[in-house]
């Protein structure tokens, strides 16, 4: 294993300061209340109104599953704050970034919850219980080093961007679509910040950074993976094309690796070369797996379409 220099975080500090300025210059102020149709809101039973019932939701099943998964993922922000605050520290530009990033992320959960409760998109009781469970267990990335953490979040922010954007599309609701498009713009800027830090780390410590990249790509898991119902929901989300292996390969991992010029980098030592080879092997396998998944999904969709044309009940489980 190639170890990163002990002072890597300090060496990266000027790059962090520069990218923090860049971020603050590009980030646009926005307000959750501007994205929520408040006139649709009404009291629940405790206030003399009516409690939630499934027929009140205008969201499709997959729209609901994706919204819940994305919102609960956002809800676990205290855990992510802890993850990055302990890795990156609270001083200087790193510390300012940690605070700013946390404040921006919190807006995502606020806006999505307001939208879902006001429009009665999902059961608010189920949502609150799920939030309590998920936040109580929290998220723990394990023993990631700062370098591994910054590499992981580069991919994770882009994954979140793709997931929010495509969730907006499947909701079939222009209001949700607009809100999630707004959130995904933030996620993209977050990705750019982290991606630029890793780009600088590749120059300072190429072998250790290549090792971190290979490890984080090979072991990548969404932060929501420990959420109750995640497997079921992520299957639905993949079948609907909100987030699947093809998107993970083509729109998340590959573009970032290309940006870092992982294939063309020169000056790697034997450890960096070994990591790069492992990464290339993994990416080829991921690509094949993604192709198989998309083929199977197309077959399954064709079968469902044929059945519904012939008047049979569509097999929603396939
Ligand atoms: Fe977010
Ligand atoms: Fe983000």
Any overview of this molecule?
With 318 residues, the chain is mainly α. The protein has eleven helices and no strands. The protein has helices at 8-26, 61-75, 77-88, 92-118, 124-137, 146-171, 174-204, 206-218, 230-239, 245-259, 270-309. α4 runs antiparallel to α7 and α6 packs across α8. It is globular and about 65 Å long. It starts with 7 loop residues before the first helix and ends in a 9-residue tail after the last helix. The mean pLDDT is 94. Bound molecules: fe (ii) ion (FE2) (2 copies). One fe (ii) ion (FE2) binds next to α4.
What keyword list fits this structure?
318 residues; mainly alpha; 11 helices; 70% helix; 0% strand; globular; binds fe (ii) ion
Report a brief summary of the structure:
This protein is mostly helical. The chain has helices at residues 8-26, 61-75, 77-88, 92-118, 124-137, 146-171, 174-204, 206-218, 230-239, 245-259, 270-309.
Rounded to an integer in angstroms, the radius of gyration calculated over CA atoms is: 21 Å
**Separation of the first and last Cα atoms:** 43 Å
Q: Helix segment count?
A: 11
SSE arrangement, N to C: HHHHHHHHHHH
Quaternary state of this entry equals single chain
Main sheet attributes: strand count, strand direction, barrel closure: none
Q: Overall 3D geometry?
A: globular
Heteromolecules bound: fe (ii) ion
Number of strands: 0
Give helix % range: 55-70%
């Amino acid at each position: 294993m190639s170890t990163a220099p002990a002072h890597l975080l300090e060496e990266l500090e000027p790059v962090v300061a520069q990218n923090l300025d860049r971020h603050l210059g590009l980030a646009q102020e926005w307000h959750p209340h501007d994205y929520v149709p408040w006139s649709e809101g009404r009291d629940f039973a405790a206030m003399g109104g009516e409690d939630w019932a499934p027929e009140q939701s205008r969201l499709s099943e997959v729209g609901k599953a994706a919204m819940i998964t994305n919102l609960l993922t956002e809800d676990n922000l205290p855990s992510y704050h802890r993850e990055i605050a302990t890795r990156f520290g609270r001083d200087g530009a790193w510390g300012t970034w940690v605070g700013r990033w946390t404040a921006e992320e919190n807006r995502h959960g606020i806006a999505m919850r307001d939208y879902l409760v006001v429009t009665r998109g999902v059961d608010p009781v189920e949502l609150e219980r799920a939030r309590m469970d998920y936040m109580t267990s929290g998220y723990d990335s394990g023993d990631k080093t700062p370098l591994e953490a910054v590499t992981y979040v580069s991919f994770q922010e882009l994954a979140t961007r793709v997931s929010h954007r495509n969730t907006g599309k499947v909701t079939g609701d222009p209001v949700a679509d607009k809100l999630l498009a707004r959130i995904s713009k933030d996620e993209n800027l977050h990705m750019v910040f982290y991606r630029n830090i890793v780009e600088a780390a590749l120059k300072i410590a190429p072998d250790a950074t290549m090792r971190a990249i290979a490890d984080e790509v090979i072991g990548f898991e969404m932060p929501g993976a420990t959420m109750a119902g995640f497997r079921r929901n992520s299957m639905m989300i993949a079948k609907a094309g909100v987030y699947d292996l093809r998107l993970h390969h083509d729109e998340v991992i590959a573009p970032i690796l290309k940006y870092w010029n992982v294939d063309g980098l020169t000056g790697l030592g034997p450890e960096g070369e070994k990591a790069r080879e492992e990464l290339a092997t993994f990416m080829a396998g991921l690509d094949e797996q993604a192709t198989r998944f998309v083929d199977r999904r197309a077959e399954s969709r064709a079968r469902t379409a044929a059945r519904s044309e012939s008047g049979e009940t569509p097999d929603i489980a396939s």
